[in-house]
């Protein structure tokens, strides 16, 4: 795995650093391995933990690695992709509660003692706990998202376990979040930008501005997340590099955000084409997507200095 990572990023990026770059606001990709944060040109990732497989020590080791690299992260503490309604209408709050409770063992008196994440929130290592993706499509792999009220129930419960934790929700539809009291338990919206669908830049930029306005109206902080894969988790040919670069640089220059985080890098997945459908890894391979290296180096330079002169393809 390490040889794979070294070879991949030698192609995509400049020489690795000893610590994550100090992009401000932070910039990165979902699923960058925590122990690679100090050798890759990003200072933000999203990392998922599974209470069935990961121990508290595993979580803390990952967060300590990100902290040591001066990086930042969004965390998932439950594998919500496996918790969608299947069949639709099968949402059970108690099931979600039980999954989160696995991080909160009880003492002899029955009191819960949840994994202490407060130091990582306090110093900015953890920017938020990502609880769900909301309505990226009507159905994804035959699994339906819980509705907003049900997601709010989950958010409220998570707040009882980690009251200091910013709660984040990922959505391409932030205007559905506007309403009374929505922001009581959700603090951040991770705004997804499906770059394959927004070939008309003026139209796409108008949609982003509207999404940000809705987040602000709902009292939510926000990130911007260019997604070159279209929202159909398996089976969508990725966006053109020109679209991807434009919206990545546009996002990096957009004011007021918590960060910019691209969806998504799949470490260790070999580039493949099956029945005409490309894998996620094809997008990040110079062999199957010529020009991705130069594109990412330009985006990296834009992140370091998010101005029109450093982001030549991101201006309206």
Structure description:
The chain is an alpha/beta fold and 316 residues long. Helices cover 31% and strands 16% of the residues. The chain contains nine helices and ten strands. It has helices spanning 2-12, 56-68, 93-101, 118-122, 148-161, 201-217, 241-253, 280-283, 292-304; strands at residues 27-30, 44-48, 72-76, 126-134, 167-171, 188-194, 221-227, 260-262, 273-274, 277-278. An eight-stranded parallel beta sheet has the order 7-6-5-4-3-2-1-8. It has a two-stranded antiparallel ribbon with strand order 9-10. A hairpin with a 2-residue loop joins strand 9 (273-274) and strand 10 (277-278). Helix 3 runs parallel beside helix 5 and helix 7 runs parallel beside helix 9 (292-304). The longest helix has 17 residues, at 201-217. The termini are far apart. 41% of the residues are buried.
In short:
The chain has 316 residues and is of the alpha/beta class. The chain has nine helices and ten strands.
First-last Cα distance: 39 Å
User: Rough shape?
Assistant: globular
Count of β-strands: 10
**H/E order of the elements?**
HEEHEHHEHEEHEHEEEHH
| Count of helix runs | 9
Contiguous low-pLDDT stretches (5 residues minimum) are 1-7, 136-142, 231-235
**Average residue-wise pLDDT:** 83
As a percent range, the share of helical residues equals 25-40%
Strand neighbour order, sheet with most strands: 7-6-5-4-3-2-1-8
Structural class: alpha/beta
Report the portion of residues in β strands.
Answer: 15-25%
Biggest sheet: strands, sense, closure? 8 strands, parallel
Radius of gyration: 19 Å
Oligomer: single chain
